[in-house]
Amino acid sequence: MIACCLFIIACKKSADLIEDTTLFGGFTKPANFPEPSYNFANNTITKAGFELGRNLFYEGRLSRNNTISCGSCHMQSAAFTQHGHDVSHGIDDRLGVRNSPPIMNLAWNKAFMWGGGVYDLDLQPIVPITAHEEMDEQIDRVMDKLSQLPKYQQLFKAAYGSAEITTAKLMKALSQFMLMCISSDSKYDQVMRKEQHVAFSELEQEGLLFFREKCAACHTEPLFTDGKFRNSGLLPSEIDDQGLYESTLNVTDRYKFKVPSLRNLRYTAPYMHDGRFLTLDVVLAHYDHQVADLPNLDPFLTQRPGLGISLSPSERQALLAFLNTLNDEKFINNPLLAEQ
């Protein structure tokens, strides 16, 4: 009898997942967000295109030995990061050089990856697919493998009217999935939209005011990043990753890395471009008294006697309380974004 009940419950959960994942409403701009930067005129999101992109995102055949998918390093439960890893772990357990950045709110991004170099979302997947330490594959081989599977012949035909697989179709389908990875239902968002019965606590409100005074210049609301590349005073790593400079070869770009969003920090540890900090307390300690006086140090970190951002214990407590309002549980549990 118990086994029968468990079977019924399991079937109901499966049915709920199927029902939820069919509720595709297309791309909708959250009410408290600005206009997207992505040009949707060149890649209109459709249900069939999104479903193709979702299959490709979780498809191991994008890697050389068919074991590593985009979802291997960008797990939904970790806000599409590789939680617990300081740097990405790719094919043959090779180590990357940077922490896997979250995949969320990419429609509002103009540049991608910690060190830049890619300024079009439709081109970004080429980098991890071909990188030696990530998926170590060639795009033409990916298309050859996918074209041999009836599943993908059907999915590409449903999305594009033809079973032919091309690089452009492959990239645009992946973009359609990633563009739908929207995190916009945290407590902060609900308060900003003035939703009923949602309000900041006194400590959270205090943290918001402090955040706007000391942090918002780089972590601009509501995305909590300005999308720029800045030098935050981190001492160079052992491998001497020089960030944006490696893409531009401009000496003024040395040790500049993309400003990350502060959304969903509960799920995305460790922090910084190389995952060197395990907790938010350590991150705040860095900005309080560990900022190094480096060439190209961001001007916002030189505006007080000494370097960095002064934080009293009470200010740190309030700031952490506010940052906790940026966690979006619905996002990491959205069945539409889960592997099917």
Task: Describe this protein's structure.
- With 340 residues, the chain is mostly helical.
- 36% of the residues lie in helices and 1% in strands.
- The chain has helices at residues 2-21, 47-57, 70-73, 126-130, 139-147, 150-160, 167-179, 187-192, 202-214, 245-248, 280-290, 313-323, 329-332; strands at 229-230, 257-258.
- A two-stranded antiparallel sheet has the order 1-2.
- Helix 2 (47-57) packs across helix 7 and helix 9 packs across helix 12 (313-323).
- The protein is globular.
- Mean pLDDT is 93; it is low at 1-10 and 12-21.
- Listing every helix as H and every strand as E from the N terminus to the C terminus, the arrangement reads HHHHHHHHHEHEHHH
Please give the largest β-sheet. 2 strands, antiparallel
Major β-sheet strand ordering: 1-2
Structural class: mainly alpha
Distance between the termini: 29 Å
User: What's the pLDDT, averaged over the residues?
Assistant: 93
Helix run count:
13
pLDDT below 50 for ≥5 consecutive residues: which ranges? 1-10, 12-21
> How many E-type strands?
2
Shape: globular
Write down the Rg: 21 Å
Proportion of beta-strand residues:
under 5%
The share of residues in helices is: 25-40%
